[in-house]
Amino acid sequence: MKLEFHPYNLELKNTFTISHGSRDFQPTLIVAVSDGGHTGYGEATATSYYGVSIEKMQQDIRELEPLLAENIHKTPEEIWELTWPMLKQNPFAQCALDIALHDLHGKRNGQPLYKMWGLDVSNIPLTNYTIGIDTVEKMVQKIKDFPWPLYKIKLGTQDDVAIVRELRKHTKSVFRVDANAAWTADQAIENANALKELNVEFLEQPLKADDWEGMKKLYKESVLPLIADESCIVESDVEKCAGHFHGINIKLTKCGGLTPGKRMIEKAKKLGLKVMVGCMTESTVGISAIAQLLPLLDYVDMDGGLLIKNDIADGVKVYDEKVHFPERNGTGAELYEKQKKS
Question: What is the pLDDT of residue 320?
Answer without folding.
Answer: 96
